Amino acid sequence: MPAIAIPQADTALYDYPKYWAECYGTADFLPVSRAEMDALGWDSCDIIIVSGDAYVDQPSFGMAVIGRLLEAQGFRVGIIPQPDWHSKTPFMALGRPNLFFGVTAGNMDSMINRYTADRKPRSDDAYTPGGQGGARPDRSSLVYCQRCREAFADVPIVLGGIEASLRRIAHYDYWQDSVRRSILLDAGADILLYGNAERAIVDIAHRLSLGEAIETMTDVRGTAFIRRDTPGDFDEIDSTRIDRPGRIDKIVNPYINTQDMDDCERQRRNAQQFGVDETGAQIVKFTVPHRLDRGKTVIRLPSFEKVRNDKALYAHANRVLHLETNPGNARALVQQHEGRDIWLNPPPIPLTTREMDYVFGMPYQRVPHPVYQDKKIPAWEMIRFSVNIMRGCFGGCTFCSITEHEGRIIQNRSQESILNEIEDIRDRVPGFTGVISDLGGPTANMYRIACKSLEIEAACRKPSCVYPGICPNLNTDHSALTQLYRKARGLKGIKKILIASGLRYDLAVENPEYVKELVTHHVGGYLKIAPEHTESGPLSKMMKPGIGSYNTFKRLFEKYSKEAGKEQYLIPYFIAAHPGTTDEDMLNLALWLKHNDFRADQVQAFYPSPMATATAMYQTGKNPLKKVSYKSETVAAVKDPAQRALHKAFLRYHDPDNWPLLREALGNMGRADLIGDARHQLIPRHQPDDKSAYRSPRRKNSATAHQRRTRGKKALTQHTGLPPRTQR
């Protein structure tokens, strides 16, 4: 077997020495059976990925990205997709992996995938052939890890994916209505990878291949593992010492030797540095290492037992975790669980543009594995003609898990890479008609947007760059995205480029030229945006802009639509029952909807996903956006099923089935004046004999072409918060 050089700590993804098995070449599809392994000439797999999703070889699906990346490193990678978890036998189908099992629940958290916000089981699963539900167990990560351990007790288990990422410390579990300990303990895995884990998984794979024991790998960013105590060369800080009100001072990077450095040198060493690639794309390089050095600082969070029993301490721990998410200055965190420490290393260093191109340039087949034959996989059907142009989100919306998982620093692909993928879809994906369904990501319009100041970016601990207003240090120039749109729609064989990712409209209005470009060429009749609410109370707890930003964008949208001679409509999404929302807030939102003649066909009640800031508000009644104490600001949480139903009913004020509930509520609120048949009133006094024929009174001059065309149609669609490609 050829000798392999030891990889360096800061080796780029594409610069690792290849593992000896690269001689087997590239598989058309990563094998899911022994027969496929035999056809490839493999006697064994080096790595086996177990996933709760069907295997779609496309870069929006996590198992495909990680599998192809490891294959490119020279490893033989097999996949066990959606195994029958009732015994260990399906987990032995590909034999014993030489290096490790990689386990993930899939592109979505298995509990969110299985249950609605009202805790009712879903009958479908978009990541399963035929869309059938029940193909994965609840808490899939736990079950899969346990079955892997039963199958081959001595094989290391590396746990990743969004389910593991959002449960890496003690977390509130909505379905049990209790605080659960870190998923790492319950799963029995050897190490947990959180966030986008390309750097960590490649580093771990190569080190295992060189014979290093997995329990010694305590220096990998973006990982969590179990420790019995804190090593003597660590400076341990109680988390209550750093949670102070007011301005947060710049914090020196704890992973470098700062002795004898002046302030300027500390700032320089702690800052990120920018370069420019051959396409002009800005690429990010951090001066902090990809691996961690000895002699560091660790912040001790309140223990699992304490946060389970003390809501103020839970909110405090959630706040501190979110303050330690910037790779440029984040410190390690530790939390005791029943005598053992769960240790969280700082987040991974973001991928450079060249590394992003490398990941998305793998030889994906872009279709489901042939084993599924003609069965449709709904998630793939939805995104098979879309292209992910970036990662991350600096919006910081408290109900969303994108920032906790992907980070707030935008990681961009080059224009060349994106255009090549569009051409690949055009030439290879079956059923392509010339329309790209989306060029986007977690948001539609954060491509190549970053902080103007290198020093501030590296030291910043703000949870959002756009709340309560757009940070003056944020460069909001959309010209790179506008240029990308123009190049993409100019490709041969491309008829239309649509933008389906949610648009951050408060950013867009800073660049009217971008709005004009978008509205003129890239809206397929409807454009979705997410104001989420109209009232300042819930908006302040969501960290979302006021409705004035929506109105500004709406004026630009209508202006440019008219200039283009197109009839196009905005589709705003709203959330019911979010923490901090009162019945009066929902009433005012309902009146706004009626005034603007919006009728929501489906509505989304707040869904408390693990580790989100809004979930901490829901569980504790405290506001982690501010310093937490026993006397600090309280937040009203909408937990009672009857009140949650009322808030959803306000969003669907036009549905006669909701009128009895709304009449009772309006009476109790002292707003019976809104019951009647006048235009200014919300609901009628009497039930119609035939509700399908009922039409509510319209405002004067409200019968526009838009309203005539949209009566009876789906005006709003369900807001899920996370598109499939962000769930990895």
Structure report:
With 728 residues, this protein is an alpha/beta fold. The protein has three domains: 221 residues, Rossmann fold; 138 residues, 2-Layer Sandwich (Transcription Regulator spoIIAA); 194 residues, no CATH class. 30% of the residues lie in helices and 13% in strands. The chain contains 25 helices and 23 strands. Helix 10 runs antiparallel to helix 22 and helix 18 crosses helix 20.
Write a concise synopsis of the structure shown.
The chain contains 25 helices and 23 strands. The chain is of the alpha/beta class and 728 residues long. Strands 2-1-3-4-7-8-14-13-12-9 form a 10-stranded mixed beta sheet, with helices on both faces. The chain has a 3-stranded parallel beta sheet with strand order 21-22-23. A two-stranded antiparallel sheet has the order 5-6.
List the helices and strands and how they pair.
Blueprint lengths: L33 H7 L6 E5 L10 H11 L4 E5 L18 E5 L5 H5 L25 H12 L5 E4 L1 H4 L5 E3 L4 E3 L2 H5 L3 E3 L4 H12 L13 E5 L7 E4 L24 H8 L1 E5 L5 E5 L10 E4 L3 H6 L1 H13 L8 E6 L2 E5 L8 H8 L17 H6 L2 E3 L1 E2 L10 H5 L4 E2 L2 H14 L6 E2 L1 E3 L13 H6 L19 H11 L6 E2 L7 H4 L3 H10 L4 E7 L3 H7 L4 H17 L5 E8 L6 H13 L8 E2 L7 H8 L20 H11 L7 H10 L36 H6 L18
Parallel strand pairs: 1-2, 1-3, 3-4, 4-7, 9-12, 12-13, 15-19, 18-20, 21-22, 22-23
Antiparallel strand pairs: 5-6, 7-8, 8-14, 10-11, 13-14, 16-17
